[in-house]
Write a structure and sequence with these properties.
Helix content is 27%, strand content 26%. With 328 residues, it is an alpha+beta fold. The strands form four sheets. Strands 1-2-6-7-5-4-3 form a seven-stranded mixed beta barrel. Strands 8-10-11 form a three-stranded antiparallel beta sheet, with helices on one face. The longest helix is centred in the last third of the chain and has 19 residues, at 256-274. GO terms for molecular function: protein kinase activity.
């Protein structure tokens, strides 16, 4: 079928593109021409992103986002469309925005040469996150869930910045966007994500992107502190005396009581940040998270959550887990 997309981009000009039939949602099939009217330019870079309305006359327009790329960069939009319509098709509308179509054409540049232009049309949804401060743990779990589902579909995002995490107005849902750097990914994650568990090594966990993302969300408990310029395990240095002992001989020329006081202050700050978790994972020096199974997860609910089995272990209220957020 033939479908023409008119791009009305205000000061940025007008273009006419044709739909790529293999990447066209059923919503747009049956039309011969639709027009995108940009109301806001929301992003620049390798691609331009606009928010606006897609005119589906005689039907009502729909709110969409139009992502446009030129020349060699436009090839990446076709790769992105491929992911939306195949590996992640079942995630549209729940984990990623709904995808409406890929459109392709040419334009004449300032030198008079013909160059490629492509765009994808996506559902306009939510707003980008700007900070994790004061974000309750239940919402962080929702974000982690979304990334786990994307990896389960065989896709690695490769650019998990806050700007690429959208949140709904009532803050109950999230969507992940911007897959132009994404790649196919047979995820090698070897263990579940368990809330408040001691952070595993990347080698044990198996997937670097999920490991680093979950760590940044504050879902895991860090087991190291920096003392005298070195990282120390809190399991091996759970007291000021032990920390000072492990720091030797690389210690400054400073009285021992001063060094002990510095170590004690550091451990107090660590306990203030993570202390509410110790009843569920054990205090430093006696981690109990090894091999937590489904029964253990249920026993420790609602403070310890196996994200892979969220329906069984989700914290029951927003208020309860807000009190236990560890600031990043």
């Amino acid at each position: 079928m033939y479908l023409e997309l008119q791009l009305a981009l205000k000061k940025d000009g007008h273009e006419s593109l044709s739909a790529v039939s293999a990447f066209l949602d059923d919503t747009l099939r049956g039309y011969t021409s639709v027009t995108f009217h940009a109301t806001q330019r929301i992003s620049d870079g390798d691609s331009r992103v606009y928010r606006g309305k897609l005119d589906l006359s005689p039907n009502e327009p729909i709110e969409v986002v139009c992502k446009i790329a030129f020349n060699e960069d436009s090839d990446r939009l076709e790769d992105e469309a491929e992911l939306y319509t195949h590996k992640m098709k079942h995630l549209q509308g729940t984990t990623i925005p709904r995808f409406y179509g890929l459109f392709s054409g040419t334009y004449i540049n300032m030198l008079g040469k013909t160059r490629a232009i492509r765009c994808i049309i996506l559902e306009a949804w939510g707003a980008s996150m700007t900070t994790l401060k004061r974000v309750p743990m239940s919402r962080r779990i929702t974000i982690a869930e979304a990334v786990l589902r994307i990896h389960a579909a065989g896709v690695q995002h490769n650019d998990l910045r806050l700007a690429n995490i959208l949140i709904s107005a009532d803050k109950s849902e999230v969507r992940i966007v911007d897959f132009d750097d994404a790649s196919e990914h047979p995820c090698a994650r070897a263990m579940p994500v368990i809330l408040y568990a001691w952070k595993p090594t990347i080698a044990d966990f198996g997937c670097r992107e999920i490991h680093d993302f979950v760590k940044d969300l504050g879902i895991w408990t860090l087991a190291t502190v920096r003392y005298l310029g070195q990282l120390h395990s809190v399991h091996l240095s759970s007291t000021a005396e032990k920390m000072l002992k492990h720091a030797k001989p690389d210690i400054p020329n400073e009285p021992e009581d001063h060094l002990l006081a510095r170590a004690d202050t550091l451990l107090q700050k660590y306990a203030k940040r993570y202390g509410t978790r110790f009843p569920f994972i054990g205090p430093p020096g006696s981690p109990i998270d090894e091999g937590l199974d489904e029964a253990s997860c249920a026993l420790l609910e609602p403070k310890v959550v196996n994200v892979d089995r969220l329906e069984q272990c989700r914290p029951s209220t927003e208020t309860r887990d807000t009190q236990n957020v560890a600031p990043l």
